[in-house]
Amino acid sequence: MTCSENPAAVIESLIRDVREADSALALLQTTRRLAAAAHPEAVPCLVEVLSFNNPGAAVAAVDGLIAIGTEAVEPLLANLDEHNYGARAWAVRALAAIGDVRGLGLLEEALGQDIGPSVRRAAARGLGQLDLTGLGDPEADALRQRCLDALEAGAADGEWVVRYGVTVGLERLVLPLPTTSPWSLRAASVLASLSGPPEEAEVVQLRARLALERLQER
Fold it and tell me: 129, 218, 127: which is closest to 179 by C-alpha?
């Protein structure tokens, strides 16, 4: 049976190509091909690529992990290396986009403590798009409260790109909720605080106002 007739063999071949790549360009190209397959068997190898010093390959790996979705969450969390900042940063980006609630703790930590503004921004956006469907009301409410707490704290971040991410996260978090819900009211209050101060970056003010308009139009 040829590789074209056996999907497992195809993935094995793509993984082997990544691990045998002998240059930065080869690693980028082989990772892109593996990521494009979006196959669960590729997850361990794609997670491994996050730890390499190759941003292009890491971006491709993140795209592949996002495409694979929830099956990538546990391997991402299980292989976090606190001594490899780059790998953790890429993992945050992947988990933020996947939106699985198992990544909540890492997103909270990243928004509050990560040294990279772009990572904190990704975490803020991710906190607004966790998938809470299928959860009971008490559990969903508790997780929503944690997201709102983290985003409210993030509104005071010193980097405007992070505060911009907070406006996006707040909007997405409460958009499905009634305007009179306590979370909607609290989110609107934080957005209002970002939309007015003259010292606030104009792009943040405008995005906060847009979020408020969208929430009011529900």
Answer: 218
